[in-house]
């Protein structure tokens, strides 16, 4: 049995500045004691997307105060904390520098060990904090920067089964919204418009459906949306709603095929698991209700448990970073040296092959 542990988590990989205190009790279950998140939505909305320089500056201005708030809400001081966990990648390098350097400074000043956390590992392990899942399980990460299907075998042991070969799903939502004149962020705007639309009006493509490999592609779908909108311009409010509904349906049907194949593969590779197998969904796009319903139905069909952590823990937050640090501590992993650099590209599965579209430096995550 591991001892009681308490950790300070810091997250600054994109456009949320966050700090959190999380504890791991002796029996292994976790508890979020404080979780402070400051969104930069207002700063970036005028640009229709995240501006890295603005994001980094906002992190600098807010992070120290948020760390103080997290400690105060938890009723502890740095002396009561066993370690510091800070996101070290992947993400926007300016933001990563702010968070990791702050984590290093606190660790050095307080004499605490530092754990440099892969942001994606935070997402991968969140379900163990919220639902007490046992290994192994599948995770679908769908966000503005990532679309991946990952086998989670254990702490630090991940196998990427599928990834996007071009655009992330969240990016496709954002660009569709921008094309149709909807506000940023695009995911909620597209979902809201789709509720009033006809999902059968536009027969949009469903990329990769039927492929044996478990990868994703959304660039062609995005192009088809542009062509459909251009063909009937100028667009009425109903036209926009119908395009959004058709887009959302195409996404759901694509995920149904891709994830369905993933669940079947998991059942083949792990036929004798003691507990009900599980699919975990994470990332901002996981808030979309049609996508959730599609995945829930798919899990019901395949005999899987569908696990969707609370929305605040699906999007970027520091609690998941703190928990990943706690998991590493409890697993006996050594802390990281203070010289460790941030990494804008940091694949969760370092052995995964590089796919077309990843560029000269390989996969971002």
From TrEMBL:
It is found in: Cytoplasm. Substrate binds at residues 141-145, 174, 187, 191, 288. The keyword Transcription does not apply. Its cofactor is Fe(2+). It is an enzyme of class 2 (transferase). It comes from the Bacteria. GO terms for biological process: tRNA threonylcarbamoyladenosine modification. Binds 1 Fe(2+) ion per subunit. Keywords: Acyltransferase, Cytoplasm, Iron, Metal-binding, Transferase, tRNA processing. Residues 31-323 form the Gcp-like domain. It catalyses: L-threonylcarbamoyladenylate + adenosine(37) in tRNA = N(6)-L-threonylcarbamoyladenosine(37) in tRNA + AMP + H(+). Signal peptide: none annotated. Fe cation binds at residues 119, 123, 316. GO terms for molecular function: iron ion binding; tRNA N(6)-L-threonylcarbamoyladenine synthase activity. NCBIfam families: gcp_kae1, T6A_TsaD_YgjD. PANTHER family: TRNA N6-ADENOSINE THREONYLCARBAMOYLTRANSFERASE (PTHR11735), TRNA N6-ADENOSINE THREONYLCARBAMOYLTRANSFERASE, MITOCHONDRIAL (PTHR11735:SF6). This is tRNA N6-adenosine threonylcarbamoyltransferase. It comes from Agrobacterium tumefaciens.
């Amino acid at each position: 049995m591991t001892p009681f542990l308490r950790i300070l988590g810091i997250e600054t990989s994109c456009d949320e500045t966050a700090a959190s205190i999380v504890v791991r009790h002796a029996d292994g279950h976790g508890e979020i004691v404080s979780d402070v998140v400051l969104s930069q939505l207002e700063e970036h909305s005028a640009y229709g997307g995240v501006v890295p320089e603005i994001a980094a500056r906002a992190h600098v201005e807010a992070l120290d105060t948020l760390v103080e708030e997290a400690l105060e809400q938890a009723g502890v001081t740095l002396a009561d904390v066993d370690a510091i966990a800070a996101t070290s990648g992947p993400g926007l390098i300016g933001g990563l520098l702010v968070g990791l350097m702050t984590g290093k400074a606190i660790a050095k000043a307080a004499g605490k060990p530092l754990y440099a956390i892969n942001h994606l590992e935070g997402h991968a392990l969140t379900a163990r904090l919220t639902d007490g899942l046992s290994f192994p399980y599948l995770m679908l990460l769908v966000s503005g920067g990532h679309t991946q299907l990952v086998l989670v075998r254990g702490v630090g042991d991940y196998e990427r089964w599928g990834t996007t070969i071009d655009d992330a799903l969240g990016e496709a939502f954002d660009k569709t919204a921008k094309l149709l004149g909807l506000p940023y962020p695009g995911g909620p705007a597209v979902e809201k418009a789709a509720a009033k639309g006809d999902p059968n009006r536009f027969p949009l493509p469903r990329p990769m459906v039927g492929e044996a490999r478990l990868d994703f592609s959304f660039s062609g779908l995005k192009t088809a949306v542009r062509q459909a909108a251009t063909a009937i311009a100028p667009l009425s409010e109903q036209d926009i709603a119908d395009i959004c509904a058709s887009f959302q349906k195409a996404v759901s049907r694509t995920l149904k095929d891709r994830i369905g194949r993933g669940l079947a593969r998991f059942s083949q590779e792990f036929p004798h698991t003691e507990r009900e197998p599980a699919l975990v969904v994470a990332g901002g796009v996981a808030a979309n209700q049609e996508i959730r319903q599609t995945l829930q139905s798919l899990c019901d069909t395949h005999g899987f448990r569908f696990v969707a952590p609370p929305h605040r823990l699906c999007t970027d937050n520091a609690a998941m970073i703190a928990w990943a640090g706690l998991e590493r501590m409890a697993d006996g992993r050594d802390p990281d040296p203070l010289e460790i650099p941030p990494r804008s590209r940091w694949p969760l599965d370092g052995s995964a092959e590089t796919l077309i579209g990843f560029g000269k430096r390989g996969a971002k995550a």
